[in-house]
Amino acid sequence: MTDLLSYELNDSIATITLDDGKVNILSPQMLSDINGALDRAEADNAIVVLAGRPGVFSAGFDLKLLRAGGDEAL
After folding, report:
1. Of 14, 35, 50, 73, which has the fewest Cβ atoms less than 10 A away?
2. 56: phi > 0 → left, psi -120 to 50 → alpha, else beta; which?
3. How far apart are CA 45 and CA 25, in angstroms?
4. Is the CB of residue 37 less than 8 Å from the CB of residue 16?
């Protein structure tokens, strides 16, 4: 679906897998992509499984962005 996550639909189950190649930080782009995938799952009338690639779910919000402040940190 995007460079940050994938979307797979099987038997009305949508699996959204986070994979930014690192620790799946929740950046504004990742959050936007997750929202887009959730909208797609809603349109598909699917149950959602949110996962990370093997060994990593998410390290949480992007701390570099948070420390920098500004609108994106809010």
Report:
1. 35
2. beta
3. 27
4. yes
Is the pLDDT score of 7 beyond 90?
A: yes
What is the model's pLDDT at position 2?
A: 74
Instruction: Provide the 8-state DSSP code for 53.
Output: S
What are the domain boundaries of the chain? 5-68
Q: What token pair was written down for 57? A: 């779910």
For the record, the structure tokens of 52 come out as 């990370």
Per residue in 15-73, pLDDT (tens digit) is: 999 999 999 999 889 999 999 999 999 999 999 999 999 999 999 988 887 778 777 76
3-state secondary structure of 28: helix
CATH fold for the domain made of 5-68: GMP Synthetase; Chain A, domain 3 (3.30.300)
